[in-house]
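TASK: fixed-backbone design
INPUT:
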């Protein structure tokens, strides 16, 4: 595939050879740390790519539909190659650690949803992890020593969880999907107030002049750690 799509070959090779630790290492570059849920995303992505047997160079050969924006999703992005930027990552704001990965050519897909008792099972495997997670991450009250312990324990768990049978972590089913059409390419217009270029589907006309949603003071969707909400910018910043 020439230089156009060289870099993902290493990841595709790791998928074929079931190199889960290698895929986890790749994901750490994007995610920034190792944790149990990033490990789950790596495993789900690996299983889906093995099942669908289609290489992905980010031209929408493979589509991933995620139902959460937690650590899991970064494992999915790295291993499947479906990302926010290449239009093959679809986000459904359902708050479930679940993904459906589909093959563009025929809509064949696989869905993996985290079993409801996963967290309980996982924490029972590592008794020190639950209280430490609560103190350091949830309550943000860990001592320097506890933070240090947590930063050793969490990656160790992430790696250990690669060895747990996938069926103990996920329910898995095959399905067939009708996928949305390829992402369109839209032209841009220039906002008459701020002077920035805006995709034409986001332009609003005021007295015949194009405005971006911010300058028009209109609602738009925003994805934050709280999920997808509607907001508007009342003041320019
Ligand atoms: Zn994480
Ligand atoms: Zn503007």
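OUTPUT:
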């Amino acid at each position: 595939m020439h230089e156009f799509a060289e870099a993902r070959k290493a990841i595709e090779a790791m998928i074929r050879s079931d190199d889960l630790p290698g895929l986890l290492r790749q994901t750490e570059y994007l995610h920034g740390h190792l944790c149990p849920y990033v490990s789950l995303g790596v495993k789900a992505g690996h299983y889906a790519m093995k099942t669908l047997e289609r290489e992905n160079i980010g031209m929408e050969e493979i589509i991933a539909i995620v139902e959460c924006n937690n650590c899991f999703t970064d494992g999915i992005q790295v291993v499947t190659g479906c990302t926010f930027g290449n239009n093959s990552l679809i986000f459904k704001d359902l708050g479930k650690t679940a993904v459906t990965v589909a093959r563009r050519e025929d809509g064949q897909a696989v869905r993996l949803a985290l079993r409801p008792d996963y967290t309980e099972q996982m924490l029972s495997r590592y008794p020190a992890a639950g209280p430490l997670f609560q103190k350091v991450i949830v309550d943000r009250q860990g001592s320097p020593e506890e933070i240090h312990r947590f930063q050793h324990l969490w990656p160790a768990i992430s790696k250990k969880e690669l060895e747990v049978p996938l069926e103990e972590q996920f329910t898995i089913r095959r399905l067939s999907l009708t996928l949305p059409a390829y992402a369109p390419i839209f032209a841009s217009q220039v906002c008459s107030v701020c002077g920035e270029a805006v995709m034409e589907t986001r332009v609003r006309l005021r007295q015949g002049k194009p405005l971006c949603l911010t300058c028009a003071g209109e609602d738009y969707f925003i994805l934050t750690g709280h999920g997808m909400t509607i907001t508007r910018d009342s003041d320019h910043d």
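COMMENT: The chain has two domains: 3-176, 188-231.
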